[in-house]
Amino acid sequence: MNIFAYLALACLQCSLALADEPGLHTADFESQAKAIQLIQKIIEDYWSGSDTNIGAATNDAANYTNVESAFREASRLMPARLDLRYCLASSLVSQAVATNGLELQMKLNSALRVYQEIQALDTNSFEAAILYAAYTRAVGETNESKAAFTLLSSAHPQRTAEYVQKFANLDHLLEMVPNEKPRRTMPRDKHHAIVILGAGLETNGTLKPKLDGRLQQGLRLARMYPKSPIILTGGNQKGGVTEAYVMGAWLVNRGINRKRIYLEDKARNTVENALFSSAILKRLGVTHVTLVTSSSHLRRGMADLQEACRQRGLDLQYDGLAITIKGDSDLDPIQERIGVYRDVLRTSGIWAFPGLQR
User: Fold this and answer.
1) Are 47 and 55 in contact (CB under 8 A)?
2) Which residues on neighbouring strands pair with residue 262, listed in sequence order?
3) pLDDT tens figures, 166-205
4) Right CATH number for 192-323 from 3.30.930.10, 3.90.190.20, 3.40.50.620, 3.30.160.20?
5) Longest dimension (CA), the chain
6) Angstrom distance (rounded) from CA 325 to CA 110
7) Residue 45's closest CA among 35, 33, 55?
8) What is the DSSP annotation of 268-279?
9) How do residues 283-306 score in pLDDT, each as one tens digit?
10) Tens digits of per-residue pLDDT, 152-162?
11) Of all residues in the chain, what percent are helix, strand and coil, respectively (each to 5)?
């Protein structure tokens, strides 16, 4: 059985299991079958590992519009499936992150309404409530956010306090000014590691200018700290090769000892970059890490990496090294805040698309 059929079957089994839950009224068989077809179509088009799927694209508004339509119809057909509503809300948030201004506000407001619907159907839901509280906080709706956190604190005091601290840390991190000059005060031994984030490849598997720039900065740092291990993270494939593989070959061709290099070639996005790289950092036993990426990406990349390391019990010191690429414009501040909040929620364990993508 291929992965698409397996996931579709799992979705169907989940929907049928809900029929046995008291108080839940599932759709008839025909509606369920239509919903499963929609879900399978999403899986095949956007989580199949192909070069054009949204698993490989950070923010593609057009693709997420299609995903929104599919999950909206699937939710209509199977109203008891709250996981489909979470997926619908996530597709709306992803569209908000891919735009700005009025369109951003409209998409986010639609997502917030879906989270409210979930809370009305599952009054003890922590995840829907924390997502609502987080995004209202991210866009400065202070009264809404405070009220949501107050209700959460009474029902889930410990978990709520943990997230309040995460968001306070994020607000501080979002004030960070990207540094484009390597610091000379990191440990000059193997306790310091360098993490370079991938940035997509050309269709023939060669470097794009953005990734070349990140590697140039990483090479500069690697030569300053010749004992530091280097983690190259990126699993999106083009031309039969992954970002990590091409990055590794690029560094080796410029004199970096391949024994220093650790390839992480499974990550499809920044959240997975952080999750998979943090596992390697823990194995290496480092105490200090420098993250190398584009200036417009540094705060989000750093937020994800710090959260992933916290999830693994790592207490590290962090530095960032950025590179500004021509045409790589600054993000709208609200757009960036929503994106950073979204990613940290995902990294913390709250799946964006339950069962499909963290």
Assistant:
1) yes
2) 231
3) 999 999 999 999 999 998 888 888 899 999 999 999 999 9
4) 3.40.50.620
5) 65
6) 34
7) 55
8) -SHHHHHHHHHH
9) 999 999 999 999 999 999 999 999
10) 999 999 999 99
11) 55, 10, 35
